[in-house]
Amino acid sequence: MKPMFTIEDLQQLVVDRLIQEARRIGQTQPVNLYQPIEYTLNMGGKRLRPAMLLMACDLFGGDVDQALNAAVAVEVFHNFTLLHDDIMDLADIRRNQPAVHKKYNENVAILSGDAMSIMAYQYLLKTESPAIQKITQLFSKTAMEVCEGQQYDMDFENQTSVSINDYLEMIRLKTAVLIAGSFKMGAQLAMAPDADADRIYGFGISLGLAFQLQDDLLDVFAEQVKFGKKTGGDILANKKTFLLLKALELANPEQKVQLNHWLNRKDFNPQEKIAAVKKIYTELNLQEISRQKSDEYYQSALKELQAVEAEINRKEPLILLAKTIMKREH
Amino acid sequence: MKPMFTIEDLQQLVVDRLIQEARRIGQTQPVNLYQPIEYTLNMGGKRLRPAMLLMACDLFGGDVDQALNAAVAVEVFHNFTLLHDDIMDLADIRRNQPAVHKKYNENVAILSGDAMSIMAYQYLLKTESPAIQKITQLFSKTAMEVCEGQQYDMDFENQTSVSINDYLEMIRLKTAVLIAGSFKMGAQLAMAPDADADRIYGFGISLGLAFQLQDDLLDVFAEQVKFGKKTGGDILANKKTFLLLKALELANPEQKVQLNHWLNRKDFNPQEKIAAVKKIYTELNLQEISRQKSDEYYQSALKELQAVEAEINRKEPLILLAKTIMKREH
User: Fold this and answer.
1) Class of domain B193-330 as given by CATH
2) A-chain residues near B118 (CB < 8 A)
3) Between 3.40.50.80, 3.30.413.10, 3.30.1780.10, 1.10.600.10, what CATH number should domain B1-136 receive?
């Protein structure tokens, strides 16, 4: 079998292709529809999902070049969801740049997002594969689930009681299925057996959950410099993360009063609120509990990968990827 | 060959299926995502586009039952575009009911629209056909063009000079391609030869343009009772229709001053503005000029249909459909 690509090789392949596509898109008429798409695709990001698709394709001996359109499809879709989410979440900044609805306006953001969703299908449908209908069905199911995840996330804002299971299901839909779907699409493009395609999907789900739990943790406990953005955002927004939900579950009466006080207070000093909530999280040992939960998912991800029928050395890039996105040294 | 379905048969088939699907969708979780889709699909409408798809399928001897998922896809997509257009156009009423962004809220309208667009693909991809990839590509191209049409329409609002060709290209994209695409998808499902699929597409484009020109005309000159909605809306909104653009082209200096006066005036009595602009249209014989233009397209639609390789009597439902939507007696 041919030597495998590194993650960096694959990310570079995707980046090069996206630059080329974004340029072409930006020159298409009507410019008010297509330039915001060029702007969005040029915002950057780690291009992890398309790289994951290509890695899974490579793992099963598929042709990475033939999978590139599907990889672009996944990235275009992901960027479409960010674009529309930013309208819904009133988020004005994305990757240190004005969000599309701020740089242009809301109508532009709605319509160019709609066009990106369709464009994702157009890239996918350029793919030549006997499995194209099955792959496009998986892509659609995944896309639908991402919408469901976003809806649950918005629902939770106005819901007083959210269980930890509800939360895990929400992040499964909003984050994990697109990672898992990218892996599985890559496997299907390589004509991997269904059982293995399902295992690599399972790997993606567990990895996605592990990653999101860790991201929630970093939002509170990271050193700001390493994290790259301000910490405490979730606390200020009363976001119902694993940490908050677990805290409400474990808190003693006094801690519960304190937590509810900060959740309900309209007028506060942001740093004071962050410090107070963080103090309760620390008292409840939540950094450790949350790390353990994330680690559970990480371990079951690796187990799923182990079960995949492929030479052990071909799995190394995927193990390395998992370590990298979990920021683990070992 | 088996006897053909009437338009009414096919509309009924679509209506029955949509009722069933809407009920199922409305019971899906999360309800805040899916109930607005049920609401939208239950708003009614003539279901012309899905019926057109089935008619073309029937014309070429295809299996109408097997084409039903594709027909539903086209209708779901069409309703998605109406839903998002209503947000962008600040339109609060759709088919005498509150628009989704009014009945629920804007975020709900954005996200459930996004989900409908994906759902349209899900229906289409249920279709079993050797041509499924080609058909899904045509559907995507059409969907993209509808977005382009909507963008041009919004662009024209802020553009001082719009040519009649610009306008015709806009309505081709915004209205005609989905009609044409529906016909062609039906033809492809029936495995019609490419040349015939292209001819039925051409039939749809010309018919769509004829219909839109007539609709613009009715917006000004219809008897309100027959038209079913208030006339003069386009005049009040300064919509750059064929009538207005042609009027600006043909007007004498005095008429041009009058027209520009009404276009620029911020404060006016609506009935007075409608009457004044309508008077200029009448002086310029625009009712006749516009009717002629629409008739040109109608005739070339029939010509395209004539060129289709099929028994003449199998084309009769399509000729009848064309007459019906053009409200013609002969």
Assistant:
1) mainly alpha
2) 117, 140, 143-144, 147
3) 1.10.600.10
